Amino acid sequence: MKDLQLKSHRFRAEREGDWRRLETLLGKGERGRARSLTDEELLQIPVLYRAAASSLSVARATSLDASLIAYLESLTTRGYFFVYGPRTKFTQRLTKFFRHDWPAAVSGLWRETAISAAIFIIAAAAAYFLVTRDNAWYDSMVGGMAQGRDFAASTASLKKVLYDNDSGHFLGGFAVFLFTHNAQVSILCFALGFAFGVPTALFMAEQGLVLGAMIALYASRGLGWQLGGWLMIHGATELFACILAGAAGFRIGLAVAFPGDKTRLDAASEAGRHAGVVMIGVVVMLIVAGLLEGIGRQTILIDWARYAIAGVTLTLWLGFFYLPRREAR
């Protein structure tokens, strides 16, 4: 035991100066004063870090005292993150995400977005046509989302839901249900994309069928325009988010189906990283849609104002994602 303590003492004495020097330089950089480090000090840090990592390896191999090993583990961890970690602050990374990473990821999925939107629109058109021809199709397409909005309801009750704040519990219940449903579908569209995109296509079609059937119901009572304003004040954002989630799922599904020169696992992994950035943004869009749905739609009861907000938000999203921008440096 005495020999081990002696070895530990000598080991520390020979190297402690370098460890303390590294600790001082790291402390200076971690306190936000990295710019005050001289060129010589910046060059010293990687050298001192590697020396500390070597000391840690020796200390572990020779079973030196636990406190020394713990100190070196902490020091080398700090050194690793300083030498190899990101140089940007959280606010800088967040700014870069919104200014470049997210819009670039979305614009890079334009083909998949077109596929997702086409499935949604075709399904909505098919549902509108079928329900208009035969009302019996409505219940099978809308199901539990109807919540009293069906062909048995009176025109007055259908209209009241769109404008009357006294029906807030009825309107609010459906709004929460619709938002929750769309959020779940968005997540599933992305998560199940690996199955060659088939579940993604089915979920997007389901969304379109519900919307098309609902429009057919209200249009049959002369309320199609009014329903559009009620839906699109938030739907311009929420449905766009769903379409982007579908596009993210299709990117993964296409990568699995057509991996090219890569293995399916590598292709799916690469596609997943790209699609994952899009999905982070989709969450942001759903939050924005929730605010528009919970506040704007409940307080703004004029049709043209609802459509104006929908048009502005859609234009902003399209410009944000698809207008050319400078490359991030």
The general outline is elongated
Please describe the biggest sheet, giving its number of strands, its sense, and whether it closes into a barrel. none
Number of strands: 0
Helix content: over 70%
Query: Residue-averaged pLDDT, rounded?
Result: 84
Topology order in helix (H) and strand (E) letters: HHHHHHHHHHHH
- First CA to last CA: what distance? 57 Å
Kindly name the structural category: mainly alpha
- Strand content range: under 5%
Query: Count of helical segments?
Result: 12
- Assembly annotation: single chain
Number of domains: 2
Residue windows where pLDDT falls under 50 for at least 5 positions: 167-171
The radius of gyration over CA amounts to 29 Å
What does it look like?
The protein is an all-alpha fold and 329 residues long. It folds into two domains: 2-85; 94-322, no CATH class. It has helices at 2-33, 39-61, 66-84, 90-107, 110-133, 136-142, 155-163, 168-191, 198-220, 224-257, 264-299, 303-322. Helix 9 runs antiparallel to helix 10 (224-257), helix 10 (224-257) runs antiparallel to helix 11 (264-299) and helix 10 (224-257) runs parallel beside helix 12 (303-322). The longest helix is centred in the C-terminal third of the chain and has 36 residues, at 264-299. It is elongated, with a radius of gyration of 29 Å. It starts with a helix and ends in a 7-residue tail after the last helix. The model is unreliable at 167-171 (pLDDT under 50).
